Amino acid sequence: MSAMQKLPRLTPRQESVPVWPACWAVMRRDLLSSLRQRQDLFNPLLFFVMVVSLFPLGVSPEKAFLREAGAGILWVAALLSTLLSLDHLFRHDFEEGVLEQLLLQPQPLYLIVLTKVVAHWLVTGVPLILMTPVLGIMLQLDGNSIACLCLTLLLGTPVLSFIGAIGAALTLGLRSAGILLSLLVIPLYIPVLIFGTGTVMAAGQGLPTASHFALLGALLVLALTCAPFAAAAALRISVSNS
Amino acid sequence: MWQFFHKLGSPKWFYGIAGRLLPWFLVPGLLLLLTGIVWGLAFAPPDYLQGNSYRIIYIHVPTAFLAQACYVMMAVAGLVTLVWRMKLADVFVKAVAPVGAVVTFLALFTGAVWGKPTWGTWWIWDARLTSMLILLFLYFGAIALGNAIADEKSAAKAVAVLVLVGVVNIPIIKYSVEWWNTLHQPATLKLTEKPSMPPEMWVPLVLSILGLYLLFGWLACLRMQTEILHRERRARWVQELVE
User: Fold this and answer.
1) Neighbour count for residue A220 (Cβ, 10 Å)
2) What is the pLDDT of residues A187-203, one digit of tens each?
3) Of B82, B149, B169, the CB nearest to A241
4) Which of A54, A205, B77, B180 has its CA at a distance of 20 to 30 angstroms from the CA of residue A111?
5) Domain, as residue range, for B130
6) Is A237 on the interface with B (CB under 8 A)?
7) Domain with B148 in it: what CATH number?
8) Per the domain annotation, does B185 fall within a domain?
């Protein structure tokens, strides 16, 4: 021990690291690259619409059934569509070596991951929410339910993106990552799904929804604060593995 | 204290200790479990409401306890893997994950068998059952991820992160019967309260719970030994041991 104490102490870097410009640059880059590869932007949305259209055709086109199941169908479809889009979250950056550069930056990886997930949600989650009213009308939902559904998706889809980021980071660079990613992430998605559809059902029955929205908000805060930590740790593991 | 801690990091040392512990887990474990189950199934009084069908409690409750405890133990070991890079912790996670999955399945299965005469249905989608099902999925996810990554160190760390993330499910299972209205009855045994059952019903239950925990310890030691032999197969002490 005494030998170690004689070593000069390492002092932490004093000059401040510009955090916000880096986050902004990551955000700008991610948004630009998704805008330039529009197919990546549209595919999850198309998938969302197609999955939703399977239920009236496959189960029942009856108005009563659709009205009861519509919120659940839209939530499940949004969940699956998010799941499919997760693969893009880190894979391109990983294959092109950008991810390694990001890991080497002095900025906290936590914030970089947070930024990337928010960018991912902006290009995959927001279009789903914008599409929801149209599909809601096709599923015979009334206006009140559709508004409530959109609000729950607004709170819920970022949670899906954040939790999914952990799975995407853990399965980065693996063979058959897609199916493994689903296996890891779906169990963690179930609570979000339950609270999301529970809110719309409560609204449909005329029950107060404040507590449901509070729970969804709590999930969002929890995911926002904790998930980037886990995803950052997982990214370091996956990148050092490759 | 620190010497013990350092020794704990040595697979060879643990292999020997585990070998000596095996009979101490196995014999009392079997005795307790057999006593508990025979007492519970044959001699405990029938329930005034459920008759004899409640007797599956002597299998259902121990497996359900262990299913959650095993996950918590895996999470603690995962934390140790990530923080202190202790080899044995990740050996433990890898060794007990399949055991945990089997025990969780048994808890769900016995619950379904118990649900049929009591609730009139094998399965309901209530909070307790669903959260236990999620626990089973989490075990499968941890096993699948561990198998998918070829490099042992990376696999251990990745599984540790996954297990730690999944630990949010444990309080949900624990409190699901209190937070939501559900068919599932509230907790059977609590450390802080007097049991709601007479002693001739809960004593065999406690015995079988303890017995199952000891058997789990036995199985964990045995599986950890196997895993250590596999990982250290190039080490000289393993080759000498095999010869």
Assistant:
1) 18
2) 999 889 988 988 888 88
3) B149
4) B77
5) 31-242
6) yes
7) 1.20.120
8) yes
Report the number of distinct structural domains present in chain B. 1
Query: What is the pTM for the complete model shown?
Result: 0.86
Mean pLDDT of all residues in B73-91: 90
Taking an 8 Å cut-off on Cβ atoms, the answer to whether A230 and B145 are in contact is: no
Q: Is any Cβ of chain B less than 8 angstroms from the Cβ of A175?
A: yes
By percentage, how much of chain B surpasses pLDDT 70? Answer: 90
CB atoms within 10 A of CB B46: 12
Instruction: Domain ranges for chain A, please list them.
Output: 38-241
Q: What does the pLDDT look like over A106-123, one tens digit per residue?
A: 888 999 999 999 999 999
Of the candidates A192, A77, A208, the one whose C-alpha atom is nearest the C-alpha of residue A139 is: A77
Residue type present at position A109: L
Cα–chain center distance at A85: 9
Cα separation, A194 vs A192, whole angstroms: 5
In this complex, do A176 and B162 lie within 8 Å of one another by their Cβ atoms? no
Chain A residues in contact with B157 (beta carbon < 8 A): 237
Q: Which of B144, B158, B169 sits opposite A183 (nearest CB)?
A: B144
3-class DSSP string for chain A:
CHHHHHCCCCCCCCCCCCCHHHHHHHHHHHHHHHHHCHHHHHHHHHHHHHHHHHHHHHCCCCHHHHHHHHHHHHHHHHHHHHHHHCHHHHHHHHHHCHHHHHHHCCCCHHHHHHHHHHHHHHHHHHHHHHHHHHHHHHCCCCHHHHHHHHHHHHHHHHHHHHHHHHHHHHCCCCCCHHHHHHHHHHHHHHHHHHHHHHHHHHHHCCCCCHHHHHHHHHHHHHHHHHHHHHHHHHHHHHHHHC
> Rounded CA gap, A132 and A146, in Å?
8
